[in-house]
Amino acid sequence: MSKQLAAGDEKENKMGVMPMNRLLIGMATPMIISMLVTACYNIVDSIFVARIVDEGGDASSAGTAALSALGMAFPFQTLLIAFATGTCVGVNAILSKALGEKDKETAQKAANNGVFLSFCNFLLFLVIGVFLAPTLIASQKGTGLTLEYGSQYLRIVCIGSLGIYMQFIFERLLQSTGKTIYTMITQTTGAVINIILDPILIFGYFGFPQMRVAGAAVATIVGQIVAGILAYILNKKFNEDVQVNLKGFKPDLTIIKRIYTVGFPSIVMQAIGSVMTYSMNRILNGLNEASVAVFTVYFKLQSLFFMPIFGLNNGMVPILAYNYGARKRGRMMKVIKLSMLYAFGFMAIGFALFEIMPEQLLRIFDTGDDSLIVLGVPALRTIAWHYMFAWFCIIGGTTFQALGNGLYSLIVSVARQLVVLVPVAYILSIIGGLDLIWWCFPIAELMSLTVTVFFLIRIYKKVIAPIPE
């Protein structure tokens, strides 16, 4: 009988008892795979739009303009995702901690209020898409084809954002209860649909109209809507721990406050990323219009190495939060150390590829415009140096959030991207133009490393160390 109980306990509470390396790999691998698929479909979007030909038959100008348009829509697309991610970070942390404490009522309230907040965020970006898209692209000095393409893309992505909000919240409910295999299914399904629809809608195959950049946006939101519906279905069928039920629902202000106490710093951090990207687009446009396309390509390529770490984070957060709630210090430390080890591996691969074969990476996005290669090779080799520090800062920031200290992550992010990166980029653009501007990334990451180490020591002494072994 005791053996049966022990086995049942292990099945019910694997985040508290399973060997940590096996648990982390099991939790994170589906998310890493799905994040890699997501990175691939983002890259495929750009590969196809880089080959767009305008009505006059000029492939190079249209392709470069299309890449620049995606880059100018990116800050606001990132902001949209920031609201989704931040809300889900708060829900995830509260829900996982509540399950660790056997408080199912709080876990249920966190889930219901998370779904409600996700819908509210969608309404906000619906308004932005309908009324502000052209103004937001023009404010980054977008003109001509870049303005036209960017406005179309941003408007469609915002109006159709209900899909990504559904996808994020229902995937996080699965993650919070340890069912990450299902999130791999939903994200992979959405990505595959996007990849299939991209060439069909962009170039007008199989009788569809040639939609160019707008086709990439439509393919994106269709994939997200399908993934969101699938995530909802999988929750209803397989998630016994938390069942969303909005019948008679009333917003719980106490739970909402707790969600955003943890999640708001994450929203602000990513919003700061949007401000950084927006500012960099303006600075780069003042130097060379093609450099915005280079910056866009860099962001697409870096996702191959950052997305797996974000997938690792998604596996790490519920484990760390659960064991924090269960007061298991040894397991908390082990998951942090293992996550840092794996994150370093991903960043080392990225650094090596950017240094050894930047031209080959850039030629994936063949616009027919040689300026992408001329400007891009030195840019990638310079930016790559910040990979050597970023792995530590990312896992450190995730640790702060999982332990309810998202303010630390916010401070690090503000200091890195607004206090250091953007001002340094502006100064370097004046001193040395495109030859120097890309060094703003390694410089900012060094500062981020310093502050992250300081806060990790602080959180260890105040939060982790007092927990008994």
Defining traits:
83% helix, mainly alpha, globular, 17 helices, disordered N terminus
Task: Give a brief rundown of this model.
The chain is mainly α and 469 residues long.
Considering DSSP H and I runs of 4 or more, what fraction of the residues is helical? Answer: over 70%
Strand content: under 5%
Q: What string, H for helix and E for strand, traces the elements in order?
A: HHHHHHHHHHHHHHHHH
**Total domains:** 1
Decide which structural class fits the backbone. mainly alpha
Largest sheet: none
**What is the gyration radius calculated from CA atoms?**
22 Å
Q: Which word captures the global form?
A: globular
Total count of strands: 0
Number of helices: 17
**Whole-Å distance between the termini?**
28 Å
Unreliably modeled segments: 1-12
pLDDT averaged residue by residue: 87
